[in-house]
Amino acid sequence: MNSKWIVLIIVLLLGSSLGYYFYTQGVDEDAQQEIKTVVNKGDFQVMVLATGELQAKRSEKILGPQGMRSAGIFQTNIQDIVPEGTIVTEGGFVATLDRTEVGNKMKTVGNDIEKSESQLLQTKLDTAIEMRQLRDQLVNLKFSIEEKKLEVQQNVYEPPAVQRQTQIALEKIQRDLLQAKENYSLKKEQAEARVQELMATLEQHTDNLDNLTKLSQGFTVKAPKSGMVIYDRSWNGKKGPGSRISAWDPVVARLPDLTEMISLTYVNEVDISKVQVDQAVTIRVDAFPENSYTGKILSVANIGEQRPNFDAKVFEVKIQLLESDSILRPAMTTSNEVLTQTIKDQIFIPLESLFSNDSLLYVFKSSEGKITKQEVITGVSNDNEIIIKHGLNEGEEILISSPENEEQIEITFLPKEIREEYERKKREAAERKKAEALAQQKKLEEAMKDIKVKPGENFTIIKK
Predict the structure, then answer these.
(1) Over the stretch 361-389, which tens digit does the pLDDT of each residue have?
(2) Which residues, listed in sequence order, are joined to residue 41 by a DSSP beta bridge?
(3) What is the chain's alpha carbon radius of gyration, rounded to the nearest angstrom?
(4) How many angstroms separate the Cα of 170 from the Cα of each of 137, 149, 176, 180, 234?
(5) For residues 363 and 25, what is the distance between their CA atoms, to the nearest angstrom?
(6) Cα dihedral value 436, 437, 440, 441, nearest 10
(7) CATH 2.30.300.10 is held by the domain 47-57+259-343
(8) 186 in the Ramachandran plot: left (φ > 0), alpha (ψ -120 to 50) or beta?
């Protein structure tokens, strides 16, 4: 009985092992089939791929209060702002700026006004008292003159010395009256000038308060027209709540024109030579991957820059969308395919199928169940495929991954004349490129001879 069970178990184990073996063999065969591909022939498109961001080609600036610099306020903070993407009407609320500094200045100017008013009142009172005293002095001098005149008349019959003494006293009082009148006129002019000065200072402080009041009203930012609010960008990101607004750059937000959009992208310095103005672009928006839009290169920057999240220098490229869609919004991420070149009737393979050993390029060709290592000469490539100039024909099968016995497979080299011709053309192309660079450098040096530039002065060379 036990022997029967043992035999049964052995049979079951053998069956499972055989089944697993044939199953795995089938999987390996399928996998082997999946890693093969066919050499294609057709029009080869050279594409440059770049990620970008949608922006409006034109936008209306929503400005903060004008006149901050003249008021001595050079920056303030955004205290509150409507959420980005909010639709506002003309004159509608957009943001509130921090009024702390303008409030402090208004308080200071208010104190200056009170001080000026107090000084003006005190000056008027002091002037009134002083002028009254001077007028009383003039009246007293006139009375003194009358008394001396009577005394002169009474001394007609007195000795000449007494008459002369009385006459001198009269002339002295008359001279004092004349000086008192001149002094009164000067004091009056002085008092008027002082009052005018204080009134001018008071008027200046009042004007400052009026300007600060109007400026404070501008700290409630309103929309110049209807549209969708998009936060403005500065060197350190979007201007949201808490962001600083400078008197030199008082832009709080923008109202974009959504009828014309551009995709702002940055292209690696390796690929920038392939990108030119007016090239066709296929644009896809990550938010709506099923949609694609046509576009063209609007501008290419002349100077590269180092951007965050990029390992190499990049150049700014603006791509204009040639179609409009109501679902598109600024700041949406885009995938841009720039068609830089189309080469007719080319043989090409996937990049994964190309292998290298030092300077030797080769593929694994499959023919009638046999795998051979074939040397190839390549041409232009894109992100997925590469042109094969020599070594393969249309329809041949090649492997995408290298086989396990790669080292045991001998390589089939191209004919010597083909390799020599390729090397010759390669040298000629390098020499031609070097000659063009030297000619360009010489042309630039000739142009610089006629340009006189002072130290620190900027200049631009315009290509004709």
Answers:
(1) 999 998 888 888 999 999 888 888 999 99
(2) 347
(3) 47
(4) 16, 7, 10, 15, 86
(5) 25
(6) -150
(7) no
(8) alpha
What are the tens digits of pLDDT across the range 385-427? 999 999 999 999 999 988 888 888 888 888 988 888 888 888 8
What is the DSSP annotation of 8-29? HHHHHHHHHHHHHHHHHHHHHH
DSSP string, 220-263: EEE-SSSEE-EE-EETTEE--TT-EEESS--EEEEEE-TTSEEE
Asked if residues 69 and 247 have their Cβ atoms less than 8 Å apart, the reply is yes
In this structure, are residues 366 and 398 in contact, taking their beta carbons and an 8 Å threshold?
yes
Looking at residue 358, what DSSP letter applies?
T
If DSSP codes are grouped into helix, strand and coil, which group holds residue 289?
strand
| Structure-model confidence comparison of residues 301 and 151, the more confident one | 301
Token pair for 22: 């044939």
Class of domain 59-97+219-254: mainly beta
- d(C-alpha 50, C-alpha 46), whole Å: 13
Is the C-alpha dihedral spanning 33, 39, 40, 46 positive or negative? Answer: positive
pLDDT digits (tens, 9 = 90+) for 22-62: 444 443 444 444 488 999 999 998 888 899 999 888 888 89
The Cα 410–Cα 162 span in angstroms is: 153
Q: Are 47-57+259-343 and 59-97+219-254 the same fold in CATH?
A: no
Query: Which two structure tokens, joined as six digits, stand for 363?
Result: 């593929």
- Asked if residues 163 and 209 have their Cβ atoms less than 8 Å apart, the reply is no
The two tokens of residue 404 are 């396990």
Task: Check if the beta carbon of residue 62 is closer than 8 Å to that of residue 223.
Answer: yes
Domain locations in the chain? 47-57+259-343, 59-97+219-254, 103-217
Distance CA 95, CA 226 (A): 15
